[in-house]
Amino acid sequence: MKTVHRYLPAILCSLTLLGPAASGARQTAGTGGLESSFDNGLSADSLRAWMKILSARPHHAGSAYGKENAEFIAGKFRSWGFETEIERFDVLFPVPESRSLEMLEPSRFTAKLAEPPLEADATSGQSSEQLPTYNAYSADGDVTGELVYVNYGIPDDYTELERRGIDVRGKIVIARYGGSWRGIKPKVAAEHGAIGCIIYSDPSGDGYTAGDVYPRGGYRNESGAQRGSVADMPVYPGDPLTPGTASTPGAKRLALADAQTITKIPTLPISYSDATPLLEALGGPVAPGEWRGGLPLTYHLGPGPAKVRLAVKFTWDNVPIYDVRGTLPGTERPDQWIIRGNHHDAWVNGATDPVSGLVAMMDEARSLGRLVADGWKPKRSIVYCAWDGEEPGLLGSTEWVEAHADALKQRAAVYINSDSNSRGFLNAGGSHSLEKFFNTVSRDVPDPQYGISVLERRRAADIVNASGADRDELRNRAGLRLYPLGSGSDYTPFLQHAGVASLNVGFGGEDQYGQYHSIYDSYDHYIRFMDTDFSYGVALAKTCGRTVIRLADADVLPFDFTDFSATLDRYVREVGELADRLRDEAAERERELGDSSLTYASNPAEHIETPGPLDEVPYFNFAPLQNAAAAVREKAAAYSELTAGLEKEGAAIPAAKQQALDAVLLGMERRLTLPSGLPGRPWYVHQVYAPGAYTGYGVKTLPAVRESLELRRWADVDPQIASVAGVLMNYAEGIGEAIRILRGN
Amino acid sequence: MKTVHRYLPAILCSLTLLGPAASGARQTAGTGGLESSFDNGLSADSLRAWMKILSARPHHAGSAYGKENAEFIAGKFRSWGFETEIERFDVLFPVPESRSLEMLEPSRFTAKLAEPPLEADATSGQSSEQLPTYNAYSADGDVTGELVYVNYGIPDDYTELERRGIDVRGKIVIARYGGSWRGIKPKVAAEHGAIGCIIYSDPSGDGYTAGDVYPRGGYRNESGAQRGSVADMPVYPGDPLTPGTASTPGAKRLALADAQTITKIPTLPISYSDATPLLEALGGPVAPGEWRGGLPLTYHLGPGPAKVRLAVKFTWDNVPIYDVRGTLPGTERPDQWIIRGNHHDAWVNGATDPVSGLVAMMDEARSLGRLVADGWKPKRSIVYCAWDGEEPGLLGSTEWVEAHADALKQRAAVYINSDSNSRGFLNAGGSHSLEKFFNTVSRDVPDPQYGISVLERRRAADIVNASGADRDELRNRAGLRLYPLGSGSDYTPFLQHAGVASLNVGFGGEDQYGQYHSIYDSYDHYIRFMDTDFSYGVALAKTCGRTVIRLADADVLPFDFTDFSATLDRYVREVGELADRLRDEAAERERELGDSSLTYASNPAEHIETPGPLDEVPYFNFAPLQNAAAAVREKAAAYSELTAGLEKEGAAIPAAKQQALDAVLLGMERRLTLPSGLPGRPWYVHQVYAPGAYTGYGVKTLPAVRESLELRRWADVDPQIASVAGVLMNYAEGIGEAIRILRGN
């Protein structure tokens, strides 16, 4: 269907939807002239043309076309006036030598493990260059065992299995995609003694239940399978053999056997046509209601009688990957970097993932280059990066961050990431010290379909979809909340390893995206089912381009700490409430076991064991966290008041003070890190945002405290509270330094 | 699987689970001796044997075997000492002469419309006696038109279709079962101009999504179809040609064309194997997310390209139905009737529906007969009824109530209904003036699996499944709440037409019931997947038998009004909150239309019209209702205090006072009725409980007020509040009379 364009006068809608805040102060707003010129330099046609080129052939890490793409991008950057280089890393990237999955009992079936070419999809037949369907960093293995269905394969699922007397030791598990980062599934399966892990795409996720399947619609058809990394990314991303250091040619590498992030058991992703005979052959109890997917069968748990043999063998070679970097040097503060990135590697052709975001970023670069050619002199350096090897495990960005850690600590002001992009609503996550600033940006970018700002459109949807007190709260804020970043794209090494304030920006929600990591994530798919006219690609370029321009040109880096503080207060409240809830749950469990009501409420014929008692939850001392949050709150308010006052007076900050302030502000996010990292995963140093150890993509805020509670490590809670409180106190101190500079005392 | 029996000492568990109220006063508790003897007279083997006989052949209304069953039951009643008679009514009961459903475009398909015999099910091959799959009281018709999928086919679904520009005028709709009484579907379809209605059983309801299908498991297989009435029962149940009067041989009958409850359009139920090709052939927009069922396809709305021809033709004959009634006359107050009923007709073999409840009721009758033979002299008359023709529309009970309306007004004290019964938890609904009494009964019946009382088991499950404040509230009440009665079984004419205080009792929740109204609702199915050892049949007999014994023998009818009043207060609060919510919704809609946020939140490519404004909701005068509820509250408290005081003193109420009190109490439920009935449906006279005009089975409490609000008939609200308030004032006055009698003034 053709996108309907209804350009409404943006300013009119803005006044209608927003209160006074909308017209409020924007210390960092660029001149209308500069940003108009920037916008004029963008073109949907370029995005389309580049997507066609970049997605013309498979371009995964280590592929010939991946290298060609890197050179193509570098050539463009150069032609637009960027100081450009390609940086190579050699990373472990296993690809299959052989894969097979057979059912041996109660009947024989051999999985096809193939996505067939479709006439409607021009690139789907490039089988000689396509990576087969597989999970990268699965261990080699040839295992035979009874099958058990484990739902999403997250820890809670195994608790349910145990209550039903089902043990996966020596068994092969089949899990459906969803519910967690895929790497969690083989990890948890292995922790429970399983010997193999199959992951399939249930049609209730992105298949026919979601919408018409490809090529009639955009969703995953019966043969579509989701490739993807199963490395234990929550421990560390990047090359499994070089944690914490760059995988340069001469770098010291771990022995394969010592690489902590490679799965312990063989793992393979399959389509729902391959999964159906296996699931049909399962006996044992019927799966719990919420475990049932969209296949036309009754989901059983097993074990058996289905018995399968899973055999996978991989090359374990290092392959070269190519990060492209183009710089527009700053004139006044060249040693402050505004870094913008999007990956360029794909699992196969990757029109959506990552090319849709990549081409928007390229157009930004082109238009910025033109502004510079026309005389614009950004104060700070602008660095555009196209990362390789994101798909296997954020390889290109992680190795680059590890290679340039010292420089980044000195110079990186902000990292702005994008990835897949489509038609719909603005989604933005990141460091909350950038929230106020980013709202001034998104308030100035028109939505391609309605003409109001992308901020206002997202806000309208949030309000319409909320209810009660939540709706009132949304109405009372003029801006949007940034969501906290977990993982899943290249911001992770910047934010969570290097402590660089980061943003992740994209549009979506009005597409038919069922081709994630499939050969059908193609140009032909994109122009029918995603951002069909590339108008949201241009909107992404406008959003991120403005972000870059304003950051590069600001007199003082536009950090503000009041939104950070408000969000921090929420997180502190949340971990306190989490402790209370766990305590209530344990008490309630004790009560329901004591009076046997849990037994009486159960169906004895189902033979489901009553859950056992929960260990008692002690009371914790949250005061250090609360005091630290209070200190941040106080300083944040003072800093905000001071800068607002200066702006009101129209008082320019003297250049010397600007430099001193920037030096403090540029280091603020780093103050949220601890060199010792998170418990059990030292690579992750950020103490406010991290991917969950057992969720993967899903964020855990105040992770050291929250995960100590969730994992019921009671003895760790108070020490972690104290440790995180110290970090936050240091953050408050940083704001204090900025205040002293502004006050000149 | 075999049911696990774990008999625990009931009194021990009782003390553990319940507070002091559990050991509170029981003015109506029978002597342990009598009830033990009653229990000893019950036998699971009898239930099993009678089920085998009664479900041996199809026994729908008007069938040969239905008549045989009536005579079998009557013979048993007689043999147990009941004064027994069979009362015949002649009722309109159409059965199919021909049925056909074909798809003409885009490809040809002829629906099988048949449930095949299964080897594992001995009675499934009795095709010569089985009613085919059809909907009783569908109009005749032969229509051809494009198909539209309408989800459940309730009013809100048509609103969603309209927003998508889909008009069902001249079309045939296909709706899935669920979401309402099935008769609502053709009614609403016709109101919107559809010319035919197909209703199918989606596997997400009672098919493979729910569990293994028959005969592997108990759920509906691909050929199973749900027969059932589609009469407009919320207008009136019973013979469509004799609303309000008994369909005795000479009775005046409406012309067929004037019968209000027959559908306006032809209607047919089908299985999911018949529905699949039709749904697969639908084009048009993809159905909204919540509309998608469990079939392996993407649900589209149409209209077309699927074009179907639906042709159904019925006999429109009157058939004889046979109600069985057996009476044990009361010795002291023979003119006060305790009525117990369960229907005996089925759609086909009906092992679950209704035989499972029927055989329990028969065993009660046998055991009561033995008590009488052994010398027990119940004060009041006990009347056991087996109704015919329930399935087509509560025919047997409705015609009987209409035939004996005057006697019932004078004599009926309480009606106790049951229907399908299975393993699991107690479910009890009814008049809240019986709530306290019924809790004294269910507190004395042991759960067959755990030995604690059936009350305690249900309460334990309610507590375990609740959370937060709801759980606390449940813990703070010693008893169970009766659910309010809507419709769907034979209590409707008693409660809602004759104003007889009623109870509806059953067990369930631990079964595999996917054979509702199918040929596979058989003995073979029952003993594998339902109450496999008939222990819950015996529990039902113990529960209802005790209810009957205590009601028959009480010195004074055990009505209490404090629970009624507390429940009434809740309903009054609910209708007030409903008005507020509707007002808030209209205001919110206005706001979201005014600032266009509803538009901005929508996907323009979907071409879904923004919902229009909602008419403003005036403020209503709820004071009369609140004052009436207050009056009830005050009187209820006074009556309760007075009776508790007497009980404490051990003071016997003199016989004359008992009679006078009974006369008032017996008329109390009638005081909740208005002869003019509910707006637009005069047959329904009860002003507190009614089936919803657009939900069918689903109850509407304070229906005249609630439905005026829901249907946005603002002008009706205040008058209905006043009218219902008058009824409640009269109820309070009734309690006042009882108080005056007790006080002797």
Sum this structure up briefly.
Two copies of one chain form a homodimer. Chain A has 24 helices and 18 strands.
How helix-rich are the residues of chain A, as a percent range?
25-40%
Main β-sheet, spatial strand arrangement of chain A: 1-11-13-12-14-16-15
Low-pLDDT runs of 5+ residues of chain A are 1-30
Overall domain count of chain A: 3
**How big a fraction of the residues of chain A is strand?**
15-25%
Give the averaged pLDDT of chain A, no decimals: 94
How far from one another are the termini of chain A? 62 Å
Number of strands of chain A: 18
CATH architecture of the largest domain in chain A: 3-Layer(aba) Sandwich
Regarding CATH, which class of the largest domain in chain A? Alpha Beta
How many helical stretches of chain A?
A: 24
What general form of chain A does the structure show? globular
CA gyration radius of chain A, whole angstroms: 26 Å
> What's the CATH H-level superfamily name of the largest domain in chain A?
Zn peptidases
